[in-house]
């Protein structure tokens, strides 16, 4: 029998704030374990939580950016369970009255495997705000708990079961990460645990509507791991069903190194967590004016920016995708393109040269010495024929190292091209006279001979002849 996968993702995103969700401890990654803690985030009896106003605003921003309805009245609840990373034996979360409900994301393009994804909407059930538990690190027979992460504001974005493949799940996560980064909500660095994902997956016979038995996959720490885990689980469940074995609702862990999932525990239901309103926290109310104030702070989103770059700067869809994929590079390019005579040439240099050098130097665009205005000036100089593209690479290297303006580098190095037609004609005549054999070969139809003659023109002019003008003049004189 053929089966269809039904997939829903629960994505956890750490909110970028200065302090934790319910206390004033710093929200900083990489500090010595258990140094950013206090009685509140360590769960001491009698310690009272105070909500982080900026984290609540970030939750509303996330909802607005994903098309959610924003609740004017919501509350925090206690979610009770016992685990070593939870000091209080309960987590402050949200149950029946979250901040954001009924959103959607638009998916299209290609997935991780390269297959086309039909354009469609994927629903978002809810976005709620909670506190992150501590981080457990396992050392063989023992484990260490770092409570620096305990209490960090955490968004849980619960998606509808509208995904049907590993490719769609990968595209959904990529889109969600873009939105969170552009919205200034989170850096979404998965290596730092700032974005984590659980996968709910079931199978049903193709053509039926009833959902199958759901399995939850945990411990997924990269988009690639999500893609691999879903494909593995589809194969595993298909094999079980075809063999006539019954699937059970359970939570499974994913071992990315082994490439397989294993049973962790039977799946809990909502009543197992014994949710009830947190008695230490008042409900949160939001007015229409407050919601509109937050809406006015929303930035241009990736899809809109891609479309604008293609229309305004004549970029290809590929160029726009590459540039917009990086939240820091996109506005940098926008500034450079607005200053340049040929924005497409700016995009070419940014993608082929600058992004490569940034990666090699292991620095960000904000740390780069080249300014948007200077890259625009470089492309104008090249496009105007002052220097060749080859010379441009030499100037670019100097700009990257020193941050100097391209015009000053060109002047200091005496690199300005000769674009005077009379001078070019003289160089060409001299090159033909000194190389009669290649000249005759070109006349006889050997196109490669022309490149040799161009090289001779550049040699005679000490590299300063405009190459395009030299080619045109050579053809003119040889014909």
Provide a brief overview of the structure.
With 479 residues, this protein is an alpha+beta fold. It has helices at 53-65, 166-182, 223-242, 288-295, 302-313, 317-324, 329-339, 343-361, 372-383, 389-402, 406-413, 421-434, 436-443, 448-460, 467-478, and strands at 3-14, 69-70, 73-74, 77-80, 90-93, 100-110, 116-131, 135-139, 142-146, 153-159, 195-205, 215-220, 250-255, 260-266, 276-277, 284-285.
Structure annotation, total helices: 15
Strand order of the largest sheet: 2-6-7-10-1-11-12-13-14
Assess the beta-strand content as a share of residues: 15-25%
How many strands, which pairing sense, and closed or not: the largest β-sheet?
9 strands, mixed
Give a verbal description of the structure:
This protein has 479 residues and is of the alpha+beta class. The chain has three domains: 291 residues, no CATH class; 112 residues, no CATH class; 58 residues, Arc Repressor Mutant, subunit A. The chain is built from 15 helices and 16 strands. Strands 2-6-7-10-1-11-12-13-14 form a nine-stranded mixed sheet, covered by helices on one side. Strands 5-4-15 form a three-stranded antiparallel sheet, with no helix packed on it. Strand 8 and strand 9 form a beta hairpin. The mean pLDDT is 92.
């Amino acid at each position: 029998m053929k089966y269809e996968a039904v997939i829903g993702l629960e994505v956890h995103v750490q909110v970028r704030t200065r302090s934790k969700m319910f206390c004033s401890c710093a929200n900083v990654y990489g500090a010595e374990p258990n140094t950013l803690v206090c009685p509140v985030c360590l769960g001491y009896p009698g310690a009272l939580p105070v909500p982080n106003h900026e984290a609540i605003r970030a939750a509303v921003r996330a909802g607005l950016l994903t098309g959610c309805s924003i609740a004017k009245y919501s509350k925090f609840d206690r979610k009770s369970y016992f685990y070593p990373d939870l000091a209080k034996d309960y987590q402050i979360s949200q149950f029946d009255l979250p901040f954001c409900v009924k959103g959607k994301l638009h998916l299209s393009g290609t997935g991780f495997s390269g297959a086309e994804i039909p354009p469609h909407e994927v629903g978002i059930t809810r976005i709620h705000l909670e506190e992150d538990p501590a981080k457990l690190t396992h050392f063989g027979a023992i484990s260490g708990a770092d409570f620096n992460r305990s209490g960090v504001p955490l968004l849980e974005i619960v998606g509808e079961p509208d995904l049907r493949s590993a490719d769609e799940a990968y595209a959904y996560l990529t889109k969600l990460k873009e939105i969170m980064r552009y919205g200034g909500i989170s850096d979404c660095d998965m290596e730092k645990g700032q974005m984590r994902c659980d996968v709910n997956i079931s199978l049903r016979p193709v053509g039926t509507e009833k959902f199958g038995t759901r399995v939850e996959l945990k411990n997924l720490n990269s988009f690639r791991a999500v893609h691999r885990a879903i494909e593995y689980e589809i194969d595993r469940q298909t094999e079980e069903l075809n063999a006539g074995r019954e699937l059970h609702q359970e939570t499974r862990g994913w071992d990315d190194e082994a490439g397989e999932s294993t049973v962790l525990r039977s799946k809990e239901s909502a009543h197992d967590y014994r949710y009830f309103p947190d008695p230490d926290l008042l409900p949160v109310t939001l007015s229409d004016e407050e919601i509109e104030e937050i809406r006015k702070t929303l930035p241009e989103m990736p899809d809109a920016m891609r479309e604008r770059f293609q229309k305004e700067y004549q970029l290809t869809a590929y160029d726009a995708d590459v540039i917009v994929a990086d939240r820091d590079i996109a506005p940098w390019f926008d500034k450079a393109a607005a200053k340049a005579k040929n924005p497409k040439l700016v995009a070419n240099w940014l993608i082929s040269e600058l992004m490569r050098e940034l990666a090699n130097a292991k620095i960000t665009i904000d740390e780069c010495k080249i300014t948007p205005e200077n890259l625009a000036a470089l492309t104008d100089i090249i496009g105007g024929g002052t220097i060749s593209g080859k010379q441009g690479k030499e100037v670019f290297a100097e700009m990257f190292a020193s941050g100097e303006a391209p015009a000053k580098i060109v002047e200091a190095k005496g690199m300005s091209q000769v674009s005077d037609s009379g001078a070019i004609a003289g160089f060409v005549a001299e090159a033909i006279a000194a190389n009669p054999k290649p000249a005759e070969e070109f006349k006889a139809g050997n196109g490669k001979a022309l490149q040799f003659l161009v090289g001779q023109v550049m040699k005679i002019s000490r590299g300063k002849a405009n190459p395009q003008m030299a080619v045109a003049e050579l053809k003119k004189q040889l014909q």
